[in-house]
């Protein structure tokens, strides 16, 4: 339920930001697309919202009011319908379409979120938020090769260690072991992996933060284990445990070699 409510708030703020830029005219909105970068960060003051609503067409104003009301009552299906009405009114506004894609993703309708994202990438091929949504959607569909392609595109834009880590995992799952090891070594040479953290469950099934290096060393051991190299596999599982002795996955992997 918390996830549902958070989605409502995020999309409401996105749509608020969209309409905050329609104060000149609907035509102006269609002519200049709003960036999808952090679409939920701009909030419109009530007075500005009232001014905007007066300048919308009756159809758009109805959809906007319907959207607000449905969202306030946590009726996401009706809010989605209103969002479609708004997209019809403002077909060139990428923020509205991105909000729809996030609705589908957060409700595990991955095929739809992937399709929405692909349509947006035709307009903004280097938008990191869209690339990530599409990559995650293909992961949800277990179409790992397509997920990897989008993570690779995302990495070229962001140079993020988290994205490269995701790439290395997918390459491991796809049995692309040389590529996975190459990216793992790039990660291990980056000092950011000693400060950036990931969340895993500990032995008590409680969430705990671990520095990325712990997980990356464990992944390297898994790559060697899958290739039948138990010596190197144990070496990297032990290196992972040396940093965090309670890292369950490295411990289990090490024990499985016996």
Summary?
By secondary structure, this protein is mainly alpha-helical. The chain has helices at residues 2-20, 26-31, 46-55, 58-72, 76-89, 94-106, 110-121, 128-140, 144-158, 161-173, 177-188, 212-226, 230-243, 248-255; strands spanning 197-201, 207-211.
Q: What is the strand content?
A: under 5%
> What is the class of the domain at 178-258 in the CATH system?
Mainly Alpha
Widest sheet: strand ordering: 1-2
The major pleated sheet works out as: 2 strands, antiparallel
Structural class: mainly alpha
Bulk shape = elongated
Helix run count: 14
Classify the helix fraction into a percent range.
Answer: 55-70%
Q: What is the H/E order?
A: HHHHHHHHHHHEEHHH
The average pLDDT value, as a whole number, equals 84
- List low-pLDDT spans: 1-9, 21-54
The CATH topology label of the domain at 178-258 is Serine Threonine Protein Phosphatase 5, Tetratricopeptide repeat
State Rg.
22 Å
CATH architecture call of the domain at 178-258: Alpha Horseshoe
Task: Report how far the terminal alpha carbons are from each other.
Answer: 44 Å
Strand element count = 2
């Amino acid at each position: 339920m918390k996830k549902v409510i958070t989605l409502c708030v995020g999309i409401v703020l996105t749509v608020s930001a969209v309409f905050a830029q329609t104060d000149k005219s609907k035509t102006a909105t269609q002519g200049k697309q709003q960036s999808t970068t952090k679409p939920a960060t701009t909030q419109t003051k009530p007075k500005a919202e009232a001014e905007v609503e007066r300048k919308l067409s009756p159809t758009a104003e109805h959809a906007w009011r319907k959207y607000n009301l449905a969202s306030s009552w946590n009726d996401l299906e009706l809010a989605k319908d209103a969002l479609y009405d708004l997209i019809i009114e403002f077909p060139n506004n990428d923020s509205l379409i991105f909000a729809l894609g996030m609705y589908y993703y957060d409700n595990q309708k991955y095929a739809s979120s992937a399709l929405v994202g692909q349509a947006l990438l035709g307009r903004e091929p280097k938008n990191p938020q869209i690339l990530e949504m599409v990559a995650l959607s293909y992961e949800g569909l277990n179409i790992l090769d397509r997920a990897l392609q989008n993570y690779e595109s995302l990495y070229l834009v962001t140079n993020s260690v988290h994205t490269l880590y995701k790439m290395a995992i997918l390459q491991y799952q796809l049995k692309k072991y040389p590529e996975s090891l190459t990216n793992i070594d790039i990660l291990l040479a980056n000092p950011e992996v000693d400060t950036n953290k990931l969340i895993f469950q500990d032995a008590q099934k409680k969430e705990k933060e671990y520095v990325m290096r712990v997980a990356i060393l464990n992944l390297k051991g898994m790559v060697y284990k899958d290739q039948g190299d138990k010596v190197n596999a144990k070496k990297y599982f032990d290196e992972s445990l040396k940093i965090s002795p309670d890292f369950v996955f490295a411990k289990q992997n090490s024990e499985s070699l016996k």
